[in-house]
Design a protein that fits this description.
Number of helices: 3
Number of domains: 1
Largest sheet: none
Strand content: under 5%
Helix content: 55-70%
Distance between the termini: 46 Å
Bound molecules: zinc ion
């Protein structure tokens, strides 16, 4: 009985590691092989490997904006707290704006990739045949 639980735990951990690796390297949420981005700013319309359509509908990536807010908040709030009594308010704001500008391309990309993976977990889809 406990062996079954251990197998299930290992399976869940393996899936989480696969998803984490796939997010880090910007891979497709379905096949974990095809790249999501074709250039720095543009996503592929379909996965180059399994051919699923990334943008399921108009405005599909709007939810990625909220994930970008979350990522920025996770970075900037601790930084603002850390700098609070160490530097002046003006310097604090300047540092936060500078970090935000530097991080924007990274949060843009990862928010889309994370949203694709969350959507795949919430509403799984299989590979689509090439048309
Ligand atoms: Zn794929």
């Amino acid at each position: 009985m406990s062996n079954k639980k251990g197998d299930r735990y290992n399976s869940i951990m393996q899936n989480l590691l696969t998803i984490f690796r796939s997010v880090i390297f910007g891979r497709c949420p379905v096949c974990q092989q095809g790249k999501v981005f074709r250039s720095f700013w543009h996503t592929h319309e379909h996965c180059p490997v399994c051919h699923i359509k990334y943008e399921r509908e108009m405005g599909y990536f709007l939810m990625a904006i909220f994930i970008a807010y979350l990522l920025d908040g996770l970075l900037l709030i601790p930084l603002a707290i850390f700098l609070f009594n160490r530097v002046s308010v003006t310097t604090n704001i300047a540092v936060l704006i500078g970090v935000l500008l530097i991080m924007t391309p990274i949060t843009y990309r990862y928010s889309r990739i994370i949203w694709l993976h969350i959507d795949q977990l919430l509403s799984p889809r299989q590979t689509e045949p090439k048309t």
